[in-house]
Design a protein that fits this description.
By secondary structure, the protein is mainly α. It has one domain: Arc Repressor Mutant, subunit A (Orthogonal Bundle). The protein is built from 6 helices and 3 strands. It has helices at residues 3-33, 37-49, 54-61, 65-77, 99-120, 125-151; strands spanning 51-52, 81-86, 89-97. A 3-stranded antiparallel β-sheet has the order 1-3-2. α1 packs across α2 and α3 crosses α4 (65-77). The longest helix is centred in the first third of the chain and has 31 residues, at 3-33. The protein is globular, with a radius of gyration of 18 Å. The model is unreliable at 156-160 (pLDDT under 50).
Length: 168
């Protein structure tokens, strides 16, 4: 194997390991917060996007709208999420994290956030541009191929909204 092929393989393995590391960290957070993995995924998505409609959450998580409602009821009853009016459609609602959840979660992630900031500060602006480009394209590949997999089951399944799209 040539040095280019070896470097490519190392980059792909590092990206794979990033996914595994992210999953393991999220599992640890779920245990610490006393939520199951599906609830943890919901809370993570809300932490990234701030507010989402229940329909969009259902699509992201691969759940029916009924299962999502049950999940949101559990999280709301435990004071982790709240339903807020949709500012663009008064008939609709968005789901948001509560200040209590944000306080609890912040205490759990402060260490890894500092470690990430320390790590990223070691790279030059040019290196960070390359890293950012790779991660954005890699994530785009995952999103596209997720849609391709869903297409195997027929056109009735809605496609997933892009992670970087504006809030819905």
């Amino acid at each position: 194997m040539g040095s280019q092929e070896q470097a490519e393989m190392q980059a792909l393995m590092a990206a794979r390991d990033l996914g595994i590391g992210t999953m393991l960290f999220r599992n640890s957070l779920a245990k610490a917060l006393e939520v199951n993995l599906t609830e943890s995924l919901c809370l993570t998505l809300l932490g990234i996007r701030n507010e989402l409609s229940p329909t969009v959450l259902a699509r992201y998580m691969g759940l029916s709208t009924g299962a999502t409602t049950t999940l949101l009821d559990r999280l709301e009853n435990r004071g982790l999420v709240t339903r807020v009016a949709n500012p663009k459609d008064r008939r609709g609602i968005h789901i948001a994290l509560t200040p209590e959840y944000q306080r609890r979660a912040q205490g759990l992630v402060v260490g890894v956030q500092k470690a990430h900031r320390d790590l990223i500060s070691r790279y030059s602006e040019a290196q960070l541009a390359v890293i950012t480009d790779f991660l954005q394209r890699f994530t785009g590949n995952l999103a596209q191929n997720s849609d391709d997999v869903l297409d195997l089951f027929g056109p009735s399944l809605p496609s997933l909204p892009a992670v970087s799209s504006p809030r819905e």
